[in-house]
Design brief:
Blueprint lengths: L1 H19 L2 E4 L2 E4 L4 H8 L4 E9 L6 E12 L2 E8 L2 E9 L2
Antiparallel strand pairs: 1-2, 3-4, 4-5, 5-6
Length: about 100
Amino acid sequence: MIKRFVLGLILSVAASHTMAANTLRCGSHLVSVGDRSGEVLQKCGEPVSRDVLGYKRSANRREEFQVEEWTYGPNGGMYQYLRFEGNRLKQITSNRGN
């Protein structure tokens, strides 16, 4: 019984960390994986930096799209890194600055 409770608690904590990586709060707005770059720009404002990482081919190899990383922060010592593939937000990561 206790093992099930502990396992459930661990899974709940792990799930909450996963959700946090899929959203970012910008003031009173939230941006999520899948949002368009224009929506993110409107909600979060201009990033500290925008870096073009290169280009990626689509799964069917018929088109290429740009891969960019936008940096926001520091906010409470944390930097937020948003990775865009084409016009869509694909990944949100954060890292404590030095």
